[in-house]
Each structure stands twice: as structure tokens, then as C-alpha cells.
User: Fold Prion-inhibition and propagation HeLo domain-containing protein from Fusarium denticulatum.
Amino acid sequence: MSGLEIPAFIIGLGGLISVFEKGFEVWRVIRRAEDFGDDIADWMCKLEMEFFRFQTWWTALEHLAITKRSSHSVLNVPLQSSPLQMTLDEQFGKPIIDAATSVLRLLEKIEGILQRNGVLVVMQAEPIITDPGADLGEATAKSRQRLKRFASDLLKHTPWTTRIKHSTSPWKEDSDKTALDDSLESMIYWNNTLYSILPQNIRDSILELGIAGYALGSPENIKDIVNLSNDRNGTLSQSAKLMSIRQRFKDGDGLGADVDAILQKMELNEAEFEGMVAADIFKGCQYTISQYTSQGGDISRVLIEWIPIPKDFDAYKLAQSRMARISYTLQQIRSFSAIQPLPALGFVEFGGATSFGLVSTLPLSFTSSTKVYTLYDMLSGGQKSATGSKSASRVQHTLPSLNQRLQLASKLVMGFYTFLLTQWHHERFNSLHIAFLIHETDTKSKALDLNQPIIGGFAISRPDSPTELSISASVEDTEVVYLHPDIRKRLKSGAKQTGNEQRFQRVHDIYAVGLLLAEIGYWRPIVKVAESGAKGSKADFMSPEQFKEAIIKKCKSDLAFFAGETYRDITLRCLLAGESGGVQAENDAAGLDNLYWDVGINLMTS
Assistant:
């Protein structure tokens, strides 16, 4: 894009801001259609999905095209490396704005039809004023804040499905039904046109995850979203299903049977397993591969993830109940994340090792030569099987390429975001709980296959409701460094969770994501990163705050050399979550929205 073309682009995109905000105002009016029949509920659901597509397209455009060159830039214009550079120029800018304007006109047309038929109460919208001479970055930032408020207001006060009559009276004109159908088809066409300019990976992500973030932001939407067909938006409906299951557990009804009876079925008998060795678990074995024989005689190979049984009886009962709930939930949600959890069978209490185990079925491709390795072991200069003792031999592999590491980081962040959409805290999202199934026959000449990470650590996860407490399980020295300084201080003091300041918050989970990104960027365990940032000081002698500051200092100094400037900035935003310069991850839909766009999408384009 030449210097002469920039002003035309800015004026055009400034006009697009007006188009998009007007679209919001029109949609606000359309959403006031109430109590008008129920025979086009699915039609309105499709219309709403198209509006969310329009909304997320604009947000993606902001992140892909409106990027500062430097802190000294006069104008916020696309970087030369922008994926949209060849599209958002003088030649293509007008067709893009025309397509967006077409969506707006269709929304206005639908508004007119519904208003003419007495469905709508007209709302007077404030005019949108765009100053062509204003700084584009500032204008879009203000626009984004207004749009977030609009979206929050829409989702807060209206259900997912708006009911209006489609084929019978009181339509004023017979052509109205046809006009609505034609308008919807045209919106789909123009939205497809707008999305066609986006890179394929970005387009796929925002159609699944970006829209889900908006739609799942309102509890009233959950019931209707669960009924969406999976081919329309599988991630959306599956995430809503998980949230629905959680709510039914909380209410104690609606599961079709007694809740306690269902949970009791999730506890498996210790005698049904072969290959569990208490000594290995006591030595720090995180996983066990065992043979499981069901009551019906079916034999399968399973992976068991262990957590120590809390000594306090109340904490023990809570942990037992939570293990039943998370295993049942994961059993129902077979695939709801970019990081696919293994199919859950239930949980087992191994008295000989004073541990609970979350039991998952291994894939049929699993053989005796396949071992489980954690990402942590890979980072340590080699691989030690996570199912073996501390003295187990290591398997050497070549260092993954930068592209492999970036793809792994992107997959982990997007999978983690999907999990947070279900309104759970993970609490143990770190390299110790990200595993890979690797054949021992692989030699060190082979590159690591990082395409299918398995997420673990669910045994300690909990809903993010203020009434839910974390399981008081002990934390090994190896793992405690992955916790936020606030949580580490509470664990060290032994204080109970008495208020929000002591409770596990979303920012604590996102801080852990920052640590994970730092590990992947440097391909070193986080302790080594911290010690390098502290110029050789041992992590054991650092306070939690000093440990965090050492990592931040190290990332600022040279992470860009290892993984690029964008990757460094994303990592720092996660490490500073909730603070100035960090991800503002409030415990609401807006906080998740910030995580997705400011971290997830930017990571995909790094």
C-alpha cells in the first residue's frame, strides 16, 4: 500500500466503522421481536448467527489490518506483512465496504418488514459520526468499546431464539415471508464474501470460537444453543452442552435420573485394573497405563492421571464428588476443544497410593511400544516417560522447528480458550499436564509430532462459580512454580479460601498460559527460564514475586529472538494478566473476548 493510497483506505475504513455500528443499532431493533409465534424460531436463530458472523468479521479485520508500525507512527496502518495487505488497498477497499453495506441494508429491510407487521417497537438510535481526519487506531478502539457494550446489552436482555410468526397471519403482505427468506439468503452470501478475504485458519477459528464467545456470554442462551445442530456450529453447541450439564449438577435435577446415582456409577472398582503400582505413584509417577476389565467383561487399555487424596475429610468428599462430575462431563462431551481430551471412563480410588485417578480410554492405535510423554519432559532436554519412575531412561528427539512450536502454542491457547468458554477454571494448565503418545521405535533423527496434544490436569479443575472451592490437593515442588504468585502465597501460608482475593481467578489461569508460552518459545522448562532471567539465582531461593519478575525480565530481553516480537508481546500480556499491559480477563464474557482476540488470534497470525 503506497503512501498516496493510505488516506483513501482510512476514509473508507472509517466509513466501514459507521456501517458496522449502524448494523448493531438495526439489530438491536430486530431483537425486540417478541411473542409473535414460534414457527420460524430456527429462521431467527440462523439470522442471529449471520449477525454474529458479521460482528466477528469486523473484529478480525481490526486485528489483522489495523496494526501500529511503531510507537512513533503517526497513522495506524497495516504492516507490510499484514495478511490483508493485498486485499485492503484502493482496488479492493470499495468492494469490501459495499459488501458490508449490503449486510446493513438487508438488516434494515428485515427491520422494515417486522416493523410494518407490528412486531417491533422502533428505537431511535444516536447518529454515528465519523471524522475522516481522526486517527484510525483511536477511532476503531472507541468503536470496539461501543460495539462491546452493544453486544453485552443485546445478549443480556434477549434469549437466543426470538419467536416470530413466519407463514400465517398477521403478515400484512404475502410477499413478506418470501422477502425475509430472500434477505437471509442474501446475508449469507455477503457474509461469505466478506469472510473470503480472511486467511483460512483465521476464518475457521472465528466461525467456531469467535462466535461462541459472544453467544455463550449469556446464560439465557445456553438452553437454545444446546439444541443447535452440530453441523451448524459444533464447538458452540458442545460448549453449551457442557455448561448445561454443569448447571443441572448444581440444581440437582434434570439429568433424567437421581444425580447421586449417576455420580456413583462413575467410580470404578480398583480390582478391575491391572498394572497399577503404588510405589511408582509415590515416586512421582503422574500417569499409569493399565488394563481395565469392565463388569461386562470388555477389556481396554486406559490412561490414569493421579492426584493425591486430601487428608481433610471434607476436602476428600469434595474431591470425590468433583472427580465424578468432571469424568461424567468429559464422558458426555467427546470433543469440545482444539486439544482433544481422551474419552473418560470414570475415576478410581487407589487406597494403596492414597490417590484418586481420572481414567481415560486410550486409542485403539495404542500399542506396547507407545509411551506417554509430557511436554515438560520434552522441554527438559529429552523425554522421560510420564508413566515411569524418576530413573526411567530418556528418548532423545530433534528440537522442533519454530513453525512447529508456534503451531503448538496456537493450538494449546485456542483449546484452553474453548475450555474456559464452559466457565470452568483449569488450575493446572501447564506442561506437566500436556501429554503426547509417542512410539518408542521413533529415533532421535525423527522430528517430534506435536500435532495431537492431550490435555490433562482435569482432576483438579472446578466450575468458576463463587460458591465452588478448589480441591485442597497437595502440590509437588515441580508443579508449584506454575501457579500464580497469589496462589503460591496462599498455599504456603496454609490459609483457607475466605474471599475473592484468595480464590483462584481467571487471571491465574491466563498467567499459567503465559508460562507455557514462555516454555514453548525458549523450549526450556520455566524454572530454567526464570533462573536465566535472574542471572543464575536458583528458583528455590526466589519468592513467588521474584520468580514472576525474573520470567518477565527474561522474556522482555530476548524472547523475540527465539520466537518473534508478536509472540513475545502475547506472552507478556498473559504473564501480566489483570495488570497494566496485560490481558484484562474479567470473569465475564468480555474477559474471554479479550483472551481470544488479543492472544489467540494474534498468536495465529504471528
Notes: The mean pLDDT is 70. The chain is about 50% helix and 10% strand.
